[in-house]
Specification:
The chain is mainly α. It folds into 2 domains: 94 residues, DNA polymerase, domain 1; 115 residues, hpI Integrase, Chain A (Orthogonal Bundle). The protein is built from 8 helices and 3 strands, in the order αααααααβββα. α1 runs antiparallel to α2 and α6 packs antiparallel against α8. The protein is elongated. The protein starts with a helix and ends in a 29-residue tail after the last helix.
Amino acid sequence: MKESFLRYLEHEKRFSPHTLTAYRTDLEQFLQFLDTTFDIQSPNEVTHTQVRSWTVDLLNQGRSTSSINRKLSTLKTFYRFLQRRHGLERNPMLKVLSPKTGKRLPHVVRADELDRLFEQIKFPEDFEGLRDRVLLELLYSTGMRRSELINLKIEDINFSHNALKVLGKGNKERLIPFGQALAKLLLSFIDLRQQTFGKSTYPHLLLTKQGKPLYPKRPIISFANT
């Protein structure tokens, strides 16, 4: 049954050699577990209890939930094949739940790490240097998203209330307050921006050295080279 399943994946589903190897490995590991733990040699004898036991065994081995879910996906495909091609009456996978994959927490840069960053970076005393400092200060002080930063316009800055108006996800508008130190930096940058490009046709606050808006496909860390 295993070999006919793998031939089906290769010739009918046109799976790549790499994927076929992964499916073969998953099945061989499962069948070996059945033989060793339950003395079961035929996949037809398997119940959802044995599959759950294998899942627990994999967790105890320290396998990641994503790896286990991939193996369970192999079994689901295998048992659907047995139902269609070999007349299997009972599919044990219908009662098997996949382990939940925990959400990865975002990496947060500590304040002292950012302080050291600003101390170590030597910003050139020109438009690009001041622009890059403003870019980092905005990210640091406001926590705004990259897309919000790129699309920020001068008219979105309210210096009377020290607040930025940004358009976030779902076109939801929100106000982000900022401190007096950032306000001074922004005013200096806007003045230099006007000296450099005059009345630019672009309303965006941050521009490349060619006077065009920054673009999202370029990593923000490399904007200093634009």
